[in-house]
Design brief:
Pfam families: T-box. Its main location: nucleus. It is built from 4 helices and 15 strands. It is mainly beta and 214 residues long. It has a single domain (8-170), classed as Immunoglobulin-like, CATH 2.60.40.820. The strands form 4 sheets. Strands 3, 6, 7, 11, 12 and 13 form a 6-stranded antiparallel β-sheet that branches. Strands 8-2-14-15 form a 4-stranded mixed β-sheet, with no helix packed on it. The longest helix is centred in the C-terminal third of the chain and has 10 residues, at 154-163.
Protein backbone atom coordinates (compact mmCIF):
# COMPACT_ATOMS: atom_id res chain seq x y z
CA UNK A 1 0.00 0.00 0.00
CA UNK A 2 1.45 3.35 -1.05
CA UNK A 3 1.95 6.04 1.60
CA UNK A 4 3.16 9.59 0.94
CA UNK A 5 4.02 12.68 2.95
CA UNK A 6 1.00 14.55 1.59
CA UNK A 7 -1.34 11.57 2.15
CA UNK A 8 -2.55 8.90 -0.28
CA UNK A 9 -5.95 7.20 -0.44
CA UNK A 10 -5.99 3.49 0.24
CA UNK A 11 -6.38 1.42 -2.89
CA UNK A 12 -8.20 -0.88 -2.90
CA UNK A 13 -10.53 0.95 -0.53
CA UNK A 14 -12.37 -0.96 2.19
CA UNK A 15 -16.16 -1.19 2.23
CA UNK A 16 -18.31 -3.06 4.74
CA UNK A 17 -21.96 -3.98 5.07
CA UNK A 18 -23.17 -3.88 8.67
CA UNK A 19 -26.03 -5.88 10.21
CA UNK A 20 -27.28 -6.50 13.73
CA UNK A 21 -27.45 -2.89 14.93
CA UNK A 22 -30.32 -1.47 16.95
CA UNK A 23 -32.17 0.59 14.30
CA UNK A 24 -33.01 3.30 16.86
CA UNK A 25 -29.59 3.65 18.51
CA UNK A 26 -26.99 6.15 17.32
CA UNK A 27 -23.54 4.88 16.27
CA UNK A 28 -20.15 6.05 15.11
CA UNK A 29 -18.21 3.96 12.59
CA UNK A 30 -14.44 4.34 12.68
CA UNK A 31 -11.27 2.73 11.39
CA UNK A 32 -7.75 2.52 12.71
CA UNK A 33 -4.74 0.67 11.33
CA UNK A 34 -2.45 -1.20 13.71
CA UNK A 35 0.91 -2.98 13.28
CA UNK A 36 0.75 -6.71 12.64
CA UNK A 37 4.09 -7.32 14.36
CA UNK A 38 7.23 -5.54 15.59
CA UNK A 39 9.24 -6.08 12.40
CA UNK A 40 10.47 -3.99 9.50
CA UNK A 41 10.52 -5.61 6.05
CA UNK A 42 12.39 -5.40 2.75
CA UNK A 43 11.47 -6.73 -0.67
CA UNK A 44 13.89 -9.28 -2.17
CA UNK A 45 13.64 -8.87 -5.93
CA UNK A 46 15.34 -12.08 -7.06
CA UNK A 47 12.89 -14.20 -5.05
CA UNK A 48 9.90 -11.80 -5.21
CA UNK A 49 9.35 -12.10 -1.46
CA UNK A 50 9.12 -9.87 1.57
CA UNK A 51 11.74 -10.66 4.21
CA UNK A 52 12.25 -9.40 7.76
CA UNK A 53 14.88 -6.64 7.76
CA UNK A 54 14.99 -5.79 11.46
CA UNK A 55 12.95 -4.39 14.30
CA UNK A 56 10.05 -2.03 13.70
CA UNK A 57 10.52 1.72 13.91
CA UNK A 58 9.27 3.60 16.96
CA UNK A 59 5.47 3.65 17.31
CA UNK A 60 3.69 6.55 15.60
CA UNK A 61 0.99 8.72 17.21
CA UNK A 62 -2.39 6.94 17.26
CA UNK A 63 -4.85 8.06 14.62
CA UNK A 64 -8.49 7.08 14.15
CA UNK A 65 -10.52 7.79 11.01
CA UNK A 66 -14.09 8.58 12.05
CA UNK A 67 -16.42 7.92 9.13
CA UNK A 68 -17.82 11.27 7.90
CA UNK A 69 -21.41 9.93 8.02
CA UNK A 70 -21.13 9.54 11.80
CA UNK A 71 -23.21 10.07 13.96
CA UNK A 72 -26.07 8.06 12.42
CA UNK A 73 -28.79 5.64 13.45
CA UNK A 74 -28.36 1.89 13.22
CA UNK A 75 -31.06 1.87 10.56
CA UNK A 76 -29.10 4.35 8.43
CA UNK A 77 -25.85 2.38 8.70
CA UNK A 78 -27.53 -0.92 7.85
CA UNK A 79 -29.17 0.50 4.72
CA UNK A 80 -25.88 1.48 3.10
CA UNK A 81 -22.47 0.09 2.26
CA UNK A 82 -19.96 1.86 4.49
CA UNK A 83 -16.98 2.94 2.40
CA UNK A 84 -13.61 4.13 3.66
CA UNK A 85 -12.50 5.40 0.26
CA UNK A 86 -11.64 8.88 1.59
CA UNK A 87 -9.24 7.65 4.27
CA UNK A 88 -5.64 8.70 3.53
CA UNK A 89 -2.31 7.24 4.63
CA UNK A 90 0.83 9.27 5.32
CA UNK A 91 4.38 8.76 6.57
CA UNK A 92 4.54 12.33 7.90
CA UNK A 93 4.64 12.08 11.68
CA UNK A 94 3.87 15.82 11.91
CA UNK A 95 0.72 15.48 9.80
CA UNK A 96 -2.05 17.89 10.84
CA UNK A 97 -4.63 16.82 8.24
CA UNK A 98 -6.06 13.88 10.17
CA UNK A 99 -4.47 11.24 7.94
CA UNK A 100 -3.51 7.83 9.35
CA UNK A 101 0.25 7.90 10.13
CA UNK A 102 2.21 4.75 9.24
CA UNK A 103 5.84 3.71 8.74
CA UNK A 104 7.04 2.51 5.35
CA UNK A 105 8.10 -1.14 4.99
CA UNK A 106 5.90 -2.34 7.88
CA UNK A 107 2.88 -4.65 7.94
CA UNK A 108 -0.47 -3.32 9.12
CA UNK A 109 -4.01 -4.52 9.83
CA UNK A 110 -7.04 -2.24 9.29
CA UNK A 111 -9.73 -2.51 11.98
CA UNK A 112 -13.36 -1.37 11.74
CA UNK A 113 -15.04 -0.16 14.94
CA UNK A 114 -18.77 0.18 15.60
CA UNK A 115 -19.21 2.53 18.56
CA UNK A 116 -22.52 3.17 20.28
CA UNK A 117 -23.11 6.85 21.08
CA UNK A 118 -23.15 6.34 24.85
CA UNK A 119 -19.63 4.85 24.65
CA UNK A 120 -18.20 7.58 22.42
CA UNK A 121 -17.23 10.26 24.95
CA UNK A 122 -13.52 9.44 24.52
CA UNK A 123 -13.69 9.00 20.74
CA UNK A 124 -11.10 11.22 19.07
CA UNK A 125 -9.05 11.16 15.84
CA UNK A 126 -5.89 11.41 17.95
CA UNK A 127 -6.65 8.88 20.71
CA UNK A 128 -6.93 5.08 20.78
CA UNK A 129 -10.43 3.75 20.15
CA UNK A 130 -12.41 3.49 23.42
CA UNK A 131 -13.22 0.06 24.80
CA UNK A 132 -16.38 -1.26 26.41
CA UNK A 133 -19.53 -3.26 25.81
CA UNK A 134 -20.79 -0.60 23.40
CA UNK A 135 -17.75 -0.90 21.12
CA UNK A 136 -17.33 -3.76 18.63
CA UNK A 137 -14.11 -4.20 16.67
CA UNK A 138 -13.70 -6.22 13.47
CA UNK A 139 -10.69 -7.09 11.37
CA UNK A 140 -10.20 -9.18 8.25
CA UNK A 141 -6.86 -11.04 7.92
CA UNK A 142 -7.13 -10.73 4.14
CA UNK A 143 -6.73 -6.95 4.40
CA UNK A 144 -3.23 -7.00 5.96
CA UNK A 145 -0.88 -4.91 3.83
CA UNK A 146 2.74 -3.77 3.66
CA UNK A 147 3.39 -0.03 3.35
CA UNK A 148 5.74 1.32 0.68
CA UNK A 149 6.60 4.67 -0.88
CA UNK A 150 6.86 3.00 -4.31
CA UNK A 151 5.56 -0.35 -5.50
CA UNK A 152 8.16 -3.10 -5.35
CA UNK A 153 6.56 -5.49 -7.84
CA UNK A 154 5.90 -4.66 -11.51
CA UNK A 155 2.78 -6.81 -11.66
CA UNK A 156 1.26 -5.02 -8.66
CA UNK A 157 2.24 -1.66 -10.15
CA UNK A 158 0.41 -2.38 -13.40
CA UNK A 159 -2.58 -3.97 -11.65
CA UNK A 160 -3.13 -1.00 -9.36
CA UNK A 161 -2.64 1.59 -12.09
CA UNK A 162 -5.14 -0.20 -14.32
CA UNK A 163 -7.76 -0.47 -11.58
CA UNK A 164 -7.28 2.74 -9.60
CA UNK A 165 -9.71 5.49 -10.71
CA UNK A 166 -7.25 8.11 -9.37
CA UNK A 167 -4.37 6.83 -11.54
CA UNK A 168 -5.57 8.11 -14.93
CA UNK A 169 -2.34 10.08 -15.45
CA UNK A 170 -0.25 6.96 -14.92
CA UNK A 171 -2.46 4.99 -17.32
CA UNK A 172 -2.23 7.61 -20.06
CA UNK A 173 1.55 7.98 -19.81
CA UNK A 174 2.13 4.25 -19.67
CA UNK A 175 -0.07 2.92 -22.47
CA UNK A 176 2.77 2.41 -24.94
CA UNK A 177 4.91 0.74 -22.31
CA UNK A 178 2.04 -1.53 -21.32
CA UNK A 179 1.69 -2.73 -24.92
CA UNK A 180 5.25 -4.03 -24.76
CA UNK A 181 4.71 -6.04 -21.59
CA UNK A 182 2.42 -8.78 -22.90
CA UNK A 183 4.16 -11.42 -20.79
CA UNK A 184 3.19 -9.83 -17.46
CA UNK A 185 0.54 -11.87 -15.66
CA UNK A 186 -2.44 -9.72 -14.74
CA UNK A 187 -5.06 -11.37 -12.49
CA UNK A 188 -8.58 -10.34 -13.42
CA UNK A 189 -10.57 -8.31 -10.92
CA UNK A 190 -14.27 -7.66 -10.69
CA UNK A 191 -13.83 -4.79 -8.21
CA UNK A 192 -11.50 -2.10 -7.00
CA UNK A 193 -12.52 -2.41 -3.36
CA UNK A 194 -12.10 -4.74 -0.42
CA UNK A 195 -15.64 -5.63 0.61
CA UNK A 196 -16.83 -7.43 3.70
CA UNK A 197 -19.76 -7.79 6.03
CA UNK A 198 -19.94 -7.54 9.80
CA UNK A 199 -22.70 -8.57 12.15
CA UNK A 200 -22.85 -6.71 15.44
CA UNK A 201 -24.06 -9.14 18.08
CA UNK A 202 -25.16 -7.19 21.18
CA UNK A 203 -24.51 -10.25 23.33
CA UNK A 204 -21.11 -11.18 21.92
CA UNK A 205 -18.09 -10.06 19.96
CA UNK A 206 -19.82 -10.14 16.59
CA UNK A 207 -18.72 -11.83 13.40
CA UNK A 208 -17.28 -10.73 10.09
CA UNK A 209 -16.12 -12.07 6.75
CA UNK A 210 -14.38 -10.72 3.69
CA UNK A 211 -16.44 -11.06 0.53
CA UNK A 212 -13.63 -10.52 -1.98
CA UNK A 213 -10.29 -8.78 -2.32
CA UNK A 214 -7.24 -8.37 -4.50
Amino acid sequence: MIITKAGRRMFPAMRVKITGLDPHQQYYIAMDIVPVDNKRYRYVYHSSKWMVAGNADSPVPPRVYIHPDSLASGDTWMRQVVSFDKLKLTNNELDDQGHIILHSMHKYQPRVHVIRKDFSSDLSPTKPVPVGDGVKTFNFPETVFTTVTAYQNQQITRLKIDRNPFAKGFRDSGRNRAKMNHSIYMPSLSTSTLEGWINVDPLGAGTGALVFSL
